């Protein structure tokens, strides 16, 4: 029986579909890596965030908010030294280190990335983290203590920016992919 399996291979199961066996019997993903997708999505999210913040600082800062949908949605430039929702303003350096660590983890994970949805999700996270990290490094009051430019202000909610949106969307997508059992390497597992 073992000889027949060696010649014709073992049947695909949901856990091994889309993979081919390596030496030692472990499965390796088939197809191409999705590194280009990851970095394209990250570059797009980063550029969009950077451009929007440059426009906000040039045209909206120190001016009255712009109402887009009555009182429900307005553009209002603020500087946020803390994390999401203005929390933790005394820990700006820690948030900078966390953002840098997220970038390093994503870069290391990119080597094993064969899943298109994971590439998109990680690209959104990477672009958003780079956007806010750029503010933390280059904006006042100083290096690693900079305040992030936020400007999207829904009624009854915190003011945020496009980097924050990319991070949240990427995080939601990662949670959904994890619930579906899809791994970054393109394999599917059952728990």
**What is the helix fraction of residues, given as a range?**
40-55%
Q: Which residues form runs of ≥5 with pLDDT under 50?
A: 1-26
Encode the helix/strand succession as letters. Answer: HEEHEEHHEH
How far the N terminus sits from the C terminus, by CA atoms, comes to 29 Å
Main β sheet profile: 3 strands, antiparallel
* Estimated share of beta-strand residues: 5-15%
Cα radius of gyration in angstroms: 21 Å
Average pLDDT reading: 82
The SS-based structural class is alpha+beta
Overall geometry comes to globular
Number of helices: 5
Tally of strands: 5
Strand order of the largest sheet: 3-4-5
Account of the 3D structure:
With 191 residues, this protein is α+β, with helices and mostly antiparallel strands. Helices cover 48% and strands 13% of the residues. It has helices spanning 2-8, 35-59, 92-109, 116-138, 162-180; strands spanning 19-21, 27-29, 66-69, 73-80, 148-154. A 3-stranded antiparallel sheet has the order 3-4-5. Strand 1 (19-21) and strand 2 form a beta hairpin. The protein is globular.
